[in-house]
């Protein structure tokens, strides 16, 4: 069946780096009430498309990509839920190329957001002051480098983070 789903294409941290992010996401969830989610770096997020076709294109994309080393240098908070408490990735040609490749498999939104690679630590629907308090409590040392070696398609209905589900994943 070719039903449309709200999808995102993510990179996941490698096995050796993932526990650091998962522990911090969990710690912040417990302290600040963020919903649980898998640590990830969004290449393309929030588009509506059939899952089966997106997965076929994502599998081909995964075959084109190599694992990426990503450096996170700054912590930020912003108004949108999907950027409420994030680690900003240092721009790199390889990360930009991965985004460009991933963008080819997704329908183009009417007003696309510029690629601003980040890793979310919490999704907090709250005031700027409370987000700043949460940011001040982050225990990760910066700068922080991590390897990303898995591409995944996720069903990501917003704002229902608790309902996010992985559709498929591929090793890079």
UniProtKB/TrEMBL annotation:
InterPro entries registered for this protein in UniProt: Cyclic-nucl_3Pdiesterase, Cyclic_Pdiesterase
Listed Pfam families: 2_5_RNA_ligase2 (PF13563)
Transmembrane segments: none
Domain of life (superkingdom): Bacteria
SUPFAM superfamilies, per database record: LigT-like
Protein name: 2'-5' RNA ligase family protein
Organism: Streptomyces globisporus
């Amino acid at each position: 069946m070719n039903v449309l789903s709200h999808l995102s294409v993510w990179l996941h941290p490698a096995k050796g780096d993932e526990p650091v992010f998962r522990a911090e996401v969990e710690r912040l969830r417990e302290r600040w009430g963020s919903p649980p989610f898998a640590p990830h770096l969004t290449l393309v997020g929030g588009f509506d498309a059939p899952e089966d076709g997106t997965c076929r294109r994502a599998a081909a994309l995964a075959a084109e990509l190599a694992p990426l080393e990503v450096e996170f240098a700054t912590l930020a908070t912003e108004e949108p839920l999907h950027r409420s408490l994030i680690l900003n990735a240092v721009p790199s040609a390889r990360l930009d190329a991965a985004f460009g490749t991933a963008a080819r498999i997704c329908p183009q939104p009417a007003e696309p957001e510029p690629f601003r690679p980040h890793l979310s630590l919490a999704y907090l629907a709250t005031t700027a002051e409370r987000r700043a308090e949460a940011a001040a409590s982050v225990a990760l040392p910066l700068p922080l480098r991590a390897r990303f070696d898995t591409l995944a398609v996720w069903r990501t209905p917003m704002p229902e983070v608790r309902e996010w589900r992985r559709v498929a994943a591929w090793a890079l």
